[in-house]
Amino acid sequence: MDNRDMYAGKGIYLDNNATTMIDPKVVEAMMPYFTTYFGNASSQHGFGAPVAKAIAKAREQVADLIGAQYPDEIIFTSCATESDNTALWTALWTQKQKDEIVTTHLEHPAIIDTCSFLEARGVKVKYVNAKANGDIDNDEFASLLTDKTALASLMWANNETGNVYDIPTLSQIARERGVLFHSDAVQIVGKMPIDVKNTGVNMLSFSGHKLHAPKGIGVLYVRRGTRFLPYLHGGHQERGRRAGTENVPYIVGLGVACELAKAHLDELNTRVKKLRDKLEAGIVSQIPEVIVTGDRDNRTPNTLNVAFKYVEGEAIILMLNEYGIACSSGSACSSESLEPSHVMQAMGIPFSAAHGTIRFSLSRFTTEQEIDETLKVLPGIIQRLRELSPYWNLNKPKLINATSEFDPDGVDDIHKM
Amino acid sequence: MWDYSDKVRDHFLHPRNARIIEDANAIGDVGSIICGDALRLMLKINPVTNVIEDAAFQTYGCGSAIASSSALTEMVKGKSLQEAEKITNQEIADYLGGLPPEKMHCSVMGREALDAAIAHYHGKSYEHAHDDGEIVCHCFGVGVNKIKKVVWENHLTTVEDVTHYTKAGGGCMSCHMRIEEIIDEVWVDLEKCGVPRPGYVPTEIPSIKITTASSIKEANFALDEGSKSSAIYEDTKAIVAEVAAGLPKDGSSLELTAISGDEVCVKLEGPVANGMLKDMTLNFIATKLKEKIGREIKVVTR
Questions:
Q1: Which of A148-157, A339-348, A390-399, B126-135 has the lowest mean pLDDT?
Q2: In this structure, are residues B22 and A398 in contact, taking their beta carbons and an 8 Å threshold?
Q3: Which residues form the domain of B114?
Q4: Pairwise CA distance, residues B56 & B74, whole Å
Q5: Which of B63, B66, B141 sits opposite A416 (nearest CB)?
Q6: In whole angstroms, what is the distance from residue B104 CA to residue B167 CA?
Q7: ipTM score here?
Q8: Over the stretch B109-158, which tens digit does the pLDDT of each residue have?
Q9: Is B35 a catalytic residue?
Q10: What is the tally of structural domains in chain B?
Q11: Mind giving me the DSSP string for A51-74?
Q12: A176: closest CA of chain B, how far (Å)
């Protein structure tokens, strides 16, 4: 397959944890709000009223998907990053006597980098350690909470491994100690059912573009009774909690996307999960020397993260790309940073494997045929790259004059590179 | 996604000479799996004519690492050792129609593998032939000499450039200040060679000379009896004196301070005591000593 077709929306898209295809039904619902209903929701005339109504409806659709008790607990933002920043700042601003944040090394940069920014300005940040499978220990989490803790922020599901964390229990632990609890739920909303009202979660972030809505729209859930100061100041929009004229078409789109996501939750946890398991079983049975990372029994149903030993991730992605297959890698070379994924490092995955991690993330639009196609080409790609790799010596002739050999697990072979 | 040239894509998807030469007589191993790329270059050099008759590679790494290795093997095949030695990392990148700036370190790795293979052919280990010096970037294990070399050869001016070419500074970033210093040191020498430094306005720092007890002590430093009784004392003394006499008359001075086994310690002062000139002077003395004495003598400063 010619990979130029991919840019026209063809190809096999297995990178849904990065972003998703916009559901055509979502686009259809948005269109009138670019044309007919262009009014400002705050206006007191006939142009504004239907727009305000549409926003109210979207708020209900969003609240329904995450199990918020009241629609007014939903604040529309520009993205999950804005929601995350708001949650961290508001917790510090409303509780001046507290100056500690508890989080993990597994978080998205929207949390980790904001925390390091705050850390450099006097906030004390404590990290819960990750186990080798990426899980965390509830008791260790509890032991880090003090009466100085302004906020505990833990992701609900991890973007790279798909690991799902026990947020109901963890948030309850925080609540019992009087600590505010925030969760970055970007990777779980729309993939697994959550019921935020029956947890101890005070604030929760997610974004539209991970559940088949467009980019540029996010949500911050703030439980009623949680003290809150806005991050953006200005107009009275969102009941004074997020200034700025509402992004109406996108809010409407997100509402519809949430309704569709709820309708497809079952499918994701049955059909899509089965496809993911088929892909995993196919890889593990056909390709030697692979490690499935993360907690295999406790993952989002669409995510598979595999480390292919002795080969480098970016090379795998480029080769897959030639076959029109899109996925992503935790390797250093596939990003601007030179270090492999911080999540793989936090989990203690050896560098030798971390550079060869590939994440496949499916969606409700993924078909069995696409998984079969992927399984058809992947073993050949890995074999081809291993034939090129000096770390893979199976069935290769030996050099007569070599004075040393490449050792994938040794640390002594860093030739000062 | 990286914006690779068609040539890079071609060499990645259809690598040339990706195989093993079992009887290769020059093998260059560089990189490691920890750093994310590693390359083994295998050459078959005709010992009579010194012509590289065959070249092949094995590479672990990203698309541009594989393409750079493939390009390198094509470039060296049929060349004499003397010609091959002159290939620069920029020429490898040019051969591929250019590399994204962040990927220049792949071409540097190719160049290093060539150095390592040639060293192996001459019966030396790469580490011996290339002392990387003090480690500057601990995340990626990059030494001062490697940074100096890429700055010197490619006229790099920023820390970002150095990271793209060597990976140094791409991890925890704590060495960025040190890399800045190294860039400045090299540019002092580059400017002496008539290379104008783009857009650089140096900050004037008034020089202050402080005489401390230790520097007075050093000034009166005399060779100890152990050094004088060394078997290589007379030869070393003569060579150091000869080199000292040849130094430019700009306040530069050179003095023998100690000999211990096969290690000679000298004291350098003035312009010659810094940067590239220092390395050149020490290497010069070492070469002369080797010619005279017939084995490797390490020359260091105190």
A1: B126-135
A2: yes
A3: 6-128
A4: 9
A5: B141
A6: 9
A7: 0.83
A8: 999 999 999 999 998 766 655 667 788 888 888 888 889 888 988 899 99
A9: yes
A10: 3
A11: HHHHHHHHHHHHHHHHT-SSGGGE
A12: 37
